[in-house]
Q: What sequence folds into this?
């Protein structure tokens, strides 16, 4: 199927909105779960959008902007996964892989903006010194506008402009290649989880990882709620222990401080 | 430690509405994100109306406050309204510039840590993991619940700002103390869920079958890996990536590419 | 089926005995598990009695007289559940609901006695002052006798006397009503568990509730032993921790006391 | 703290049999339960033969002891023999009236707490939960095991009384100290089991089916609630009741009636 | 089937090697898992050897030489289980029981050697005093050689020499007796676990035993890895707690020591 | 505490290779095991080449060292190389004989405890339990994995010896401190696994069926024991044996015979 001009513009508008949402981290409609669903709706295939949303959301699970870093772009990944699956007839799992270059393209554009927007800081300092709130507000919102428009343009080009060559490319793919992309889509979440673990996993949390893993392996249920409930219970138990520990530590510190003070007092 | 400078001009009073507005405006926090000062421009944009009300006629005070807020800051976006509310109460009470700035600088780091642990590392994986299981079956429940959760979290900015405002200076001690405990508990929950996510959502199945006799083959997946432990390959591969990320400092994008290359190669070889 | 006079007297006698048992909290034959079984046996339908016993026991699980309160009466609930199921042919689950008014009636009678028996205290004080142990014993046992006889009378009236109107009433019930009673019987245990939780559930025990709940949801087994074993294991682990904590607390207290004493000694 | 009043007449010696009898007589504890002094009348009735033996000819002493025991008391019925045994050893040793009475008053409360936690909140739900699963299938094992457990518990009153007697005053410190720990562990066990009981024995199943197309319906129960978490409605309803009991102080009887009304109403509407 | 002379010598050689391995506790090829497998291979029935290895290994799980004790001999147990199953056609489970006398025989021989080898100590003392390392080495290795040769001889006699009477004996067994031996083989691991528990199980570890037991009862999986993973997770959690506890204890001790020292200092 | 005796002749230097050799030679530890001095002969045999190199020409020193090492010792065989390495560093550094001997005597006990807990009580049951599940199905994976694990453990003696050598005296404090903690954690793991082993590998099934009516029987196993708790008989019997071993000090061999007699008897009676 082809994407019509109207559909292309519609998706482009949504890219603008969700792009700004990602920039501000507002309503999290920038996550693939929502982006895919809405894109699917706009292309007239809601079900495809929802399924692609589930898959792509997981593939991007740990890829977050924490600490001011910039991950592969979730908005473009979400849009292009649905668009590719829709236009080429490939499964969403395969499409995730094919959408990745677009996602990385947008990642680098945002990285460029992070550097570029430093130019405004000088001017904003001046406005602040003058307490000129009007001008300050206008200028401080400028980057958001620039980002939004960029999303709209890039999305339109990718979705509407590039569809012919892309379809050709994809159709020319041999079976093992598209199978390879599909498989990659299934393994991809591992990267996100690896990133998550990089910032969370200290030695002392390894047992909980193992418990969660084992529980999910052997509790047959359609979602992860049981694992989350077990995790919440364990977290709560640990919380109680940690509270108790901090009380003891406080008392110990108090005693030692008193002892030291006492010692000093004697000395003086 | 309290304001004892009698030269400070009397400052304006903030209403509940002002704090609500502050909470909503905290959305501007990243409006001008850049590598030089990170969120400071957007942060100041969010604070401006509140500062204006507090300083009223005192333009010099407002200019000083705005300039001070333009210093480097980078914190979690759901913790930002808490800090904003807290600082609003200090501004209103006429604390000295240096006191206010010192607290802002001292607190944004811990708040980033605890906030990220809760929002990015715990809530997102749980919500994503659970709703994805619905979405993968084509059920609209998935995106719907996801959306509702995050709309609720957006509006939570308002009570969070009020919390910061009403807690005032008393909160500082408590934030410093409890941030470690709450982060610890959040990590326990987060790691448990990630363990579950690895088992549920990373999919690696070896297709290779070894022929042992005429018409008789052994499946590497079902007769070897699956007998050792279910999902042992997903766990192993995730740990390999973790190792590369942590010890070798490999970039995630490189690992994504590596995953693709491996997947395509092994697909071509008929292994996966 | 009808309850014969002989059966009515038999059940009435058992009401006297188990009523006294409830009054004294002796052998716990007052719990519906036993009351139903024995009543069923007396009415010639042991199996019905046992099944009703299981159901009614659970419906009354948390309804206990802890702290001197008085719950809906388990003896009358047990007797009447079996009698109603036996005479009207309804399922025990439905009968639990229909038996409830009798249970609440008896609850209020006991509550009345709790107040009324205060009249004896004056006299007992006198006997005590005279060290007249004989008279003291006779009077102190009087309430037990009164309670037992009351149970016998009430049970006889309900079981034998009221059966004709009751059967009519029950037979006139439309389907949705008896279905409603049956459903209520299935939900009723929630009240008891709520009452139990009211006195047990502090924040720190929530994780254990969740663990027990999740375990029972996913461990397929005919009884709750597995959950109880897990609970026992967790309780034991917590016990070890608490023991250890109390040792630390004791030492801390000692040190602080010494410090204070030391300070005071120096001061004096 | 020990008896240093040399005027106290020498008191009688108690035999092992006397303590056994005391344990059995503890069954009288609630023989005259009333709102004015709760168990005190029955309590004194249980104690009388022991006191008589201790005071022998000393009628004044006996009268004083009986009168003292008639003060308000309300404790757990399996803890009562422990306290009785303990007091018996004090009476026998000739402690002063005030010492004995002080201990009785100081200990009945903690003993009620720990005793209730173990007997009413832990043993009963476990025994009821497990035996009910047999009984519901019509197996006599259910009531039989239930009966045997409680007969055993009744006779446990005897060793409990001996325990109290032989522990004597040394026990007091230990009871005070360990009551918190034992209650804590019992609560952990109790809450785990109640969680299991809720999942196993509260039954709420929604019958409503939503028609989505001709001849095609969606079951609210199996396609919605059961997919979120098994037994989520029983858990939710139990927590609602808990909330009403705890925060609104609603009476259990009212909640029973409410449950009936709701059940019948929803049955009539075809929802349950 | 009969054991040929060649097979007998082969097994005898392996008995020498694995006997020395047990004496030195080197590569653990003395455990039934390996002994049975190799013996099976030598007798031309590898599969039988492997299966017998699994069964016999478990039956001897807790029977270890910890603390210098000497358990029923695993080498002879392993060899004879396979030999008996092979020559008589009985199941390995039955054979474990029939092999036991040989295992106990060897146990007593080793016990004898433990006592006997004390005779060398005198001489070794002398060599040490002379710093005569050559002679010391030769003598200190002597017991190992003696043990190895003993294994070879005993194994040869049992495997090759005694096979005719043994087959007769076994063939004469009534059904209930061989069934009894088989059942005993299934219960035997309990002894080993009992021995293990004797040295490990303190009160505080009972909950973990219960958790492992319950987990194994309800997690349906072909091996014990899930239980081991859960155990490892719990062990790790306990390790963290214990570490933390020891830090607190250290601080407490420090404070108390300081207090005492302080007190003493003041006194002086 | 360090060597301050200037009379000690200068001692030889050890190379990495010497320590590697020491690790391998630790296999001699039990070469002459006997009840008089347990491992001391083999222990000394393992140490000799290292001691020779250290003392070189100083034959008196070597003789003294050898004689000292011949004192009673009994430790875990995987902990032995650690202790050997540690002592090697002390010998090399010229510590006094009494210091070295004191440490050897002080440490072999704790090291036996922690080593046994890890190797005999944790690793062996786990490896045996898991590989046996493969072997019982006839898969060569079972013995293969078992073998590889223990070959690896054998070669671990080398790094263990190096660890002991490089840790030197600093290690002593840490071993003393952590041995309790590590043993504790190992016991937790060990007991969990043994619980699992009991459930998986002890097999007791009652065959008796009670006839209740013509052609209708009740199976004791499936309709009674299996309904109470799965594998309750194996657990019960194991605990009985544990009780006999622990409290009655019964010998394991006797219990093995008892088990046989019981099994054959009950087989004859048709119960098992
Ligand atoms: O880590 C703190 C903070 O860093 C960046 O500013 C953003 O990615 C936020 O989402 C994050 O919370
Ligand atoms: O709560 C203490 C005590 O109160 C009442 O006296 C009775 O209901 C007892 O069963 C209970 O143990
Ligand atoms: O218990 C210490 C030690 O004792 C004996 O020497 C041997 O059985 C070793 O395997 C064991 O480790």
A:
């Amino acid at each position: 199927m082809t994407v019509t001009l109207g559909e292309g513009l519609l998706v482009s508008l949504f890219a603008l909105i969700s792009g700004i949402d990602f920039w501000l981290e507002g309503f999290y409609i920038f996550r693939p779960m929502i982006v895919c669903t809405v894109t699917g709706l706009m292309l007239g295939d809601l079900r495809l959008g929802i399924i692609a949303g589930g898959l792509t959301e997981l593939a991007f699970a740990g890829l977050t902007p924490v600490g001011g870093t910039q991950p592969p772009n979730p908005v473009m990944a979400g849009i292009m996964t649905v668009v590719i699956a829709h236009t080429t007839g490939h499964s969403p799992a395969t499409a995730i892989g094919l959408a990745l270059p677009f996602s990385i393209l947008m990642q680098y554009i945002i990285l460029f903006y992070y550097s570029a927007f430093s130019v405004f800081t000088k001017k904003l300092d001046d406005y602040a010194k003058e307490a000129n709130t009007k001008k300050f507000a206008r200028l401080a919102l400028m980057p958001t506008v620039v980002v939004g428009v960029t999303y709209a343009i890039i999305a339109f080009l990718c979705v509407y402009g590039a569809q012919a060559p892309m379809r050709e490319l994809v159709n020319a793919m041999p079976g093992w290649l598209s199978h390879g992309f599909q498989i990659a889509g299934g393994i991809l979440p591992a990267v996100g989880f690896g990133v998550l673990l990089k910032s969370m996993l200290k030695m002392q949390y390894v047992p909980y990882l193992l418990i969660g893993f084992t529980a999910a392996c052997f509790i047959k249920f359609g979602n992860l709620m049981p694992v989350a409930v077990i995790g919440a219970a364990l977290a709560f138990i640990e919380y109680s222990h940690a509270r108790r520990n901090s009380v003891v530590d406080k008392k110990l510190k108090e005693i030692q401080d008193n002892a030291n003070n006492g010692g000093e007092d004697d000395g003086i | 430690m309290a304001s004892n400078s009698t030269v400070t001009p009397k400052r304006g009073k903030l209403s509940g509405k002002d704090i609500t507005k502050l909470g909503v405006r905290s959305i501007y926090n990243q409006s001008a994100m850049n590598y030089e000062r990170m969120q400071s421009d957007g942060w100041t944009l969010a604070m401006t109306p509140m500062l204006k009300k507090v300083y009223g006629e005192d333009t010099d005070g407002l200019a000083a406050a705005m300039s001070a807020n333009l210093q480097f800051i980078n914190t979690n976006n759901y913790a930002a309204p808490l800090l904003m509310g807290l600082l609003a109460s200090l501004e209103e009470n006429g604390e000295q510039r240096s006191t206010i700035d010192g607290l802002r600088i001292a607190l944004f780091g811990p708040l980033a840590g605890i906030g990220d642990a809760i929002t990015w590392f715990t809530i997102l994986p749980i919500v994503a993991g659970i709703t994805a299981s619905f979405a993968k079956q084509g059920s609209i429940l998935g995106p719907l619940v996801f959306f509702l959760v995050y709309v609720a979290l957006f509006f939570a900015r308002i009570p969070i700002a009020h919390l910061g405002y009403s807690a005032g200076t008393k909160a500082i001690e408590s934030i410093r103390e409890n941030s470690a405990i709450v982060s610890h508990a959040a990590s326990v929950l987060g790691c448990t869920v990630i363990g579950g996510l690895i088992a549920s959502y990373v999919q690696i199945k070896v297709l290779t079958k070894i022929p042992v006799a005429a018409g008789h083959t052994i499946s590497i997946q079902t007769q070897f890996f699956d007998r050792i432990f279910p999902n042992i390959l997903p766990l192993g591969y995730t740990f390999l990536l973790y190792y590369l990320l942590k010890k070798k400092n490999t970039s995630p994008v490189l690992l994504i590419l590596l995953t693709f290359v491996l997947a395509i190669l092994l697909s071509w070889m008929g292994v996966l």
Summary: Confidence is low (pLDDT under 50) at residues 264-268 of chain A. The CA atoms of residues 14 and 122 of chain A lie 33 Å apart. Chain A touches chain B through 109 residues (CB under 8 Å). Chain A has twelve helices and no strands.
